[in-house]
Design goal:
Layout lengths: L1 H8 L13 H8 L4 H6 L16 E4 L10 H17 L7 E6 L5 H13 L4 E6 L19 E10 L13 E10 L2 H6 L7 E5 L2 E3 L4 E5 L5 E6 L8 E5 L5 E6 L4 E4 L7 E4 L10 H14 L5 E5 H6 L6 H4 L8 E7 L6 H9 L6 E7 L10 H7 L20 E5 L4 H13 L5 E5 L6 H13 L8 E5 L2
Parallel strand pairs: 1-2, 2-3, 3-4, 4-5, 5-6, 5-7, 6-9, 8-10, 9-11, 10-12, 11-13, 13-14, 14-15, 15-16, 16-17, 17-18, 18-19
Helix pairs in contact: 4-5
Protein name: F-box domain-containing protein
Pfam families: F-box, LRR_At5g56370
């Protein structure tokens, strides 16, 4: 073989073991490469000439850059895609990924999509960053073999055919898609076994009063929409088998939920920065969301979400009791010092909490100088002042992990958990690079001198 001859000419007499591997293993190896790299292996030897023609994954995401307007480059790109599809064998295609960042012939693009659909493609990922609307072939919305569909459309309208049937679609990812009227509901109703839905940076044409997601089979739902479309909308979610829910968006006018009895985890990052809702309306919406999540085991909240709770009256009695919650993640910043009561109420509502993860970002003026006055001032007053009713708060807390900058408020908060978590086993602190070895020593000394309920707790330091 040619490769073996090259090795001999260079004084290397090792056996070419890779070329002797079965085709199925070589196909698996090449499936991790971009298609242009997989095709280039055909020049290695006779053994490799046609191996690429059966690779189950076709990835054309790197071939046409964002900034080139060279028509020759565009023609080469389209010709290459067509040659690959033409010379590929008749085996089925597992995944087809392509990025269109320059003006191409829509007819040819549709022909490529139709070609892979005929090869029983299971996954399609299309990035389309051009302005003019792109009309998909109807076959992509009536594909029996499709299990995963990802569309990144640069805010182009999603034009749907009158008839849609995606009987085996389990994953639907929609990024930067512009929806018309009830297009999303129409699409979801045509996916009878959908399990995961991601809606990221999408927009809705015209006024949207109700945003409804209804799917009896849905297990994972992510809504990341920083635009203001949701501010005057009512979000309705009916997904009885939902296991994970993430929302990063402006606070909507209202939430309407079905039963979330199967929910395990949630990541809540709704923002209060909206002029359409009063502080009380934002607060009521956030509390209503938490009430729907009463059964979860893992919860992550942002500082923005905590801010929406600050106008709640008697918040401790309005929150549900999270009996199953064992892990709580809080992304905090300096502004969260104004939300200490809300943080405490959330902890109080989690009687079986075992693991607490804190990600803390302080302002520049919050950084400490690590002098004696800094360490002395930390012990002046607890971060929270507990009465007898709050003392059992941390009866199950075993782990506290914090990444941040080592600011005053951050260390005071950690000191609080160190003192009152009676079964604490580990506290892990990942401070910024600016936090020196001397600071680690002082911080260790500080914690070890504090009175604490757990005598077996250990403290570890690391870089974030």
């Amino acid at each position: 073989m040619k490769t073996q001859r090259i090795l001999r000419d260079n004084g290397i007499h090792e056996e070419d073991r890779i070329s002797k591997l079965p085709d199925s293993i070589l196909h698996h190896i090449l499936s991790f490469l971009l298609t242009r790299h997989a095709v280039s292996t055909s020049i290695l030897s006779t053994r490799w000439r046609y191996v690429w023609t059966s690779v189950p994954i076709l990835d054309f995401t790197d071939l046409l850059g964002y900034y080139t307007g060279d028509q020759q480059v565009i023609r080469r790109f389209m010709n290459f895609v067509e040659r690959v599809l033409l010379f590929r064998d008749t085996t089925s295609i597992r995944k087809f990924s392509i990025g269109i960042h320059q003006v191409c012939d829509d007819t040819r693009i549709n022909a490529w999509i139709s070609a892979v659909i005929k090869r029983k493609v299971q996954e399609i990922s299309l990035t389309y960053s051009l302005g003019p609307p792109f009309v998909f072939p109807h076959s992509i919305f009536n594909c029996d073999s499709l299990t995963s569909l990802e569309l990144d459309m640069n805010y182009c309208s999603l034009n749907l055919p009158s008839s849609i049937c995606l009987p085996n679609l389990k994953i639907l990812i929609l990024k930067c898609v512009a929806f018309e009227a009830n297009n999303l509901s129409k699409l979801l109703s045509s996916c009878p076994i959908l399990e995961e839905l991601i809606i990221e940076d999408c927009i809705w044409r015209g006024n949207m009063n109700i945003f409804c997601i209804s799917s009896p089979t849905l297990k994972r739902l992510t809504i990341c929409t920083p635009f203001e479309d949701f501010e005057e909308a009512v979000i309705k979610i009916y997904a009885p088998n939902l296991m994970f829910f993430q929302t990063i968006s402006f606070s909507p006018k209202d939430f309407v939920f079905g039963q979330f009895s199967s929910l395990i985890g949630a990541d809540i990052g709704t923002s209060c920065d909206t002029e359409f809702l009063t502080e009380e309306e934002k607060c009521n919406t956030s509390i209503k969301l938490l009430q729907a999540l009463f059964n979860i085991k893992v919860l992550k909240v942002s500082c923005y979400f905590l801010t929406t709770l600050e106008y709640a009256k008697d918040i401790a009695n309005r929150l549900p009791t999270f009996h199953n919650l064992i892990r709580l993640d809080m992304n905090l910043d300096y502004s969260c010092l104004n939300n200490k009561d809300e943080m405490l109420a959330l902890l109080q509502a989690s009687p079986n909490l075992e693991h607490l993860f804190l990600s803390y970002r302080s302002d520049d003026d919050e950084e400490h100088d690590s002098d004696e006055s800094f360490w002395e001032s930390i012990n002046v007053i607890d971060f929270w002042v507990l009465d007898a009713a709050h003392i059992p708060l941390f009866s199950q807390l075993k782990t506290v992990k914090c990444s941040g900058s080592g600011g005053f408020a951050e260390i005071r908060m950690l000191s609080f958990f160190w003192k009152y978590a009676r079964v604490l086993k580990t506290m892990e602190i990942a401070c910024s690079i600016a936090f020196s070895i001397e600071d680690d020593t002082e911080l260790t000394k500080h914690f070890l001198m504090l009175p604490r309920l757990s005598k077996s707790a250990v403290i570890n330091f690391s870089q974030p």
